[in-house]
Each structure stands twice: as structure tokens, then as C-alpha cells.
Write a structure and sequence with these properties.
Elements: H1 6-31, H2 38-48, H3 54-74, H4 78-96, H5 109-124, H6 131-134, H7 144-175
Helix pairs in contact: 1-2, 1-3, 1-5, 2-3, 3-4, 4-5, 4-7
Length: about 190
């Protein structure tokens, strides 16, 4: 019998805590559990903050959180699970960033913490108390970590960029101004 060390126990606790919070947030979006809005309510909110189409965005975010969180808690496909969760939290952080850092002001503290924890788990690996370890790490290879994190970062950059462009356009339309014909660039 193998003796588990502090590293394995610490990763188990971190995975279960981070994964559990993510899965619960995803369940709010997908199923309306824990006081969440379900797909319809979440879709309306996503539309209001610039993630369009709202229903597809709500499904994607809910699946990333529920699925990624569940996989993180189990320690299964850890690089992909951590990357998907982190990418989704980057999208959430983009919405909360204008409110500052702290959650009490609606800031990005919560999504940033979850995203960093998910990234850390993806990099560190799940530990020996995990399904990945029990299955011989077939879904947790070293090359998968940069591939998964790179793909998630690229996807998040595209989605957040499109959302930010849409929000700026809606603000300009609300103010009655037009897009500039040419972007001005001033160099010092």
C-alpha cells in the first residue's frame, strides 16, 4: 500500500474545493440550482453584459464550469479541465474588471482566484489521489498542459475581445457617436 504525502492530500483538497465551487456555479447556470438563473436567466444576463448570443454563451460557460469543475474535483483529464475552467474565468473576469479587484464591489476577485487555482492545478497535476493517477495518466500527459492552456488562452482572448468590441460599439451607439473612419495613433 502506498503512503500518500502532504502534496497529494493538498492537491486533493485544492482540486475538490476549486472544482466544487466551479461545478456549483455551473449548476446555477445550467440547471438553476443554488439560486441560479438556469439557462434562460443566465442567457439574459450574458446578453446584458455583451456575451452574445446569450443562450450559447450561457451553455458554454455553464458546461465549462460544471464539466471542468467536476473533472477537476475528480482529478480526471486535469490539464484540459483546468484550462477550460481558467479560460471561462478569464471571460468572467472581463465582466467584473471595471468594478475593481474586490468581490464586495463586484470586482474580479472571485473569478481571478478560481482561474488561477484551476491553472495551478492544471500545471501541478492532480496528485496520486485522483482518477488520472488511477488510469495511468492517459489523460494527463506533460504535453497536454501547454496545449490545453494555450488553446484555452487563445479561445478566451477571441471571445473576450469580441465581447469587449461589442460593448464599446453599444456604448458608442448609446452616445450617438460613430466609429472613427481611421484609427488615430500618436507616437511620442
Amino acid at each position: 500500500m502506498t503512503c500518500y504525502d502532504r502534496h497529494d492530500l493538498g492537491l486533493l483538497l485544492l482540486r475538490m474545493g476549486t472544482g466544487g465551487v466551479l461545478a456549483a456555479n455551473g449548476a446555477q447556470k445550467l440547471f438553476g440550482w443554488f439560486g441560479g438563473g438556469g439557462i434562460e436567466g443566465t442567457a439574459q444576463w450574458f446578453e446584458s453584459v455583451g456575451y452574445k448570443p446569450g443562450k450559447a454563451s450561457a451553455m458554454a460557460a455553464g458546461l465549462a464550469e460544471f464539466g471542468g469543475g467536476t473533472l477537476l474535483a475528480l482529478g480526471l483529464a486535469t490539464p484540459a479541465a483546468g484550462a477550460v475552467a481558467a479560460g471561462n474565468m478569464a471571460g468572467a473576469a472581463a465582466v467584473h474588471a471595471p468594478n475593481g479587484f474586490f468581490n464586495t464591489e463586484g470586482g474580479l476577485e472571485h473569478p481571478a482566484t478560481l482561474g488561477l487555482a484551476a491553472t495551478g492545478i492544471a500545471i501541478a497535476g492532480p496528485g496520486r489521489l485522483s482518477l488520472d493517477h488511477a488510469l495511468g495518466h492517459i489523460l494527463d500527459r506533460g504535453w497536454m498542459v501547454p496545449a490545453a492552456l494555450g488553446a484555452a488562452a487563445a479561445g478566451a482572448a477571441v471571445v473576450v475581445g469580441m465581447r469587449n468590441r461589442r460593448v464599446r460599439q453599444e456604448q458608442r451607439e448609446a452616445e450617438g457617436s460613430q466609429d472613427p473612419l481611421f484609427e488615430e495613433s500618436f507616437e511620442e
